[in-house]
Here is the input.
Amino acid sequence: MSIRGPNASGCRPWKTPVVNYDAILLTGGSARRLGGRDKPALDVGGIPIAARVASAVADAAKLVVVGPCPAGVRADVVTREDPPGGGPVAAVIAGLSHVDSGRVAVLAGDLPFVTAATVRELAKLTGDADVAVLVDGEGRDQLLCAVWRTDALRVCVAGRGAGSPMRAVLAAAERVHRLSLPTDGPPPWFDCDTEADLARAREWAD
Here is the structure.
């Protein structure tokens, strides 16, 4: 599927990015702690979470959605991991088969406050690294908020598949930059894993 349009909650404007990159947006997963609900399609501030994430990569050359494509997300490609529900590494591998650019952003579909500025900073940091990954306020790697050199990511996922941990993929990278950002508002690494997380995100958005 290939759709482009004006910039509005996940739509794709024509822009010249700071660094040319594609983006993989992961929207699958079981969301067990949310009762199996379609987490990326849940709204925060009246906008599906995945659409908010998509707006952070609006200047990507290509947006590849792996999993269901929620309303408000205008993707160039929609695909699925093999097998469906096989986990984030399987989803990344499925998305990589559609990536053309030398760099690729890998983002979870449940990050309502990730920003374009964060993604651009990560993309710039890949200049002399295999990957740039966001870290949270406690210094923990946010494995699904990162920008990779595409060739490095292909090497790091080689031989892996369903059930493989994303942490092992990061560990296979030779050069890693970690981005720590000060924040005086909702943090870009905040994800919505539980009902409490979702309620907090909605409070922040309001």
Notes: The mean pLDDT is 87. Helices lie at 49-56, 88-96, 116-125, 150-157, 166-171, 195-205. DSSP finds six helices and nine strands in the chain. The first helix runs from residue 49 to 56.
